[in-house]
Amino acid sequence: MSGELPAQQRRALERLVERGTLTTEQAGEVAAELAAEPAAPRAGGLWEVLGYAGGALVLGGAALLVGMSWEDLSRAARVGLLAAAAAVLAGAGIAIAGGPRAVRELAGAAPSRRSRIVAVLFALAAGIAAMAVGSGLEDAPQLDVPLVATAAGTALAAAGYVALPSVPGLLATGAFAYWCALSAVDGWGNDSSLPQMVVLIALGAVWAALAVGGVLQRPGGGRAGRVRREVGLGIAAATALSGAQWTIGAEQAVSYGTTFVLAVLCFAAFLRLRSTVLLVFGVLGVTVSVPEAVYDWTGGALGGPLIVLLVGVVLLAVGGFGLRLRNKVGSDSA
Fold it and tell me: Which among 3, 77, 241, 253 is placed 20 to 30 Å from 299, CA to CA?
């Protein structure tokens, strides 16, 4: 197929070939005809930028207004302003989509500028709505306000993702779920950070199960589904590895040991799933854990320059190993 075609048209032709609607030769002829047509002016990029800028200005304006007048506003006014900003963002997303039914249609179609704008607006709306919940409950002694606020943000971001599966919605859900998990165990174990480590690694396992199980690829599947799976695996690895590093100050051996084990699991999962993002996080995990272990074993005798040198050596070695592993997997699957 011609490389001059827009990516969306190429993906559409590839899906038609995969479904057997067109043969490869027919798809090539269609691609040649489309490529021969004069390109129409594309102003969609401008509208996409304007949509992002508008959402950012609504978010920034709400934060600035509340920040400057926070002490002077009543609780009802604070919640009202934040809720109104969230409603504006969500309403703008629905309007740009063309209505609630159009949002469902976008969910089943290939990613486009419109779907990206709508997804970003939904994610921003979830964030401001979570702020509104936290503001409304900030003086409620019987409630764990951070937990309730982050749980609300997680639920709203997940609802936005279900309505319109997208990478922005997935990232927003992952971020809210991360802080919700930390809020849930805040204060457990007194001075120990092990509860945070355990819950973040468990959350990472949940994300990995959702990605591997194909939940994040639906609906639509195809290339967009594969991208969402990769992002889900990235969220899983980042969440688990950050959890392993949570105890580095108090339980160093547990921290770097767990980080190294998770890195090895990332390598093993890469061999099975062919996910480059897992290879990247495997390299990152080994690069972080090995110098930490050496520093701990030597009692900190190594100076800063030697630690930097060690990190460089480990990064080169592990990076070379990762590259050989990726090439081997590529040649095996060819």
Answer: 241
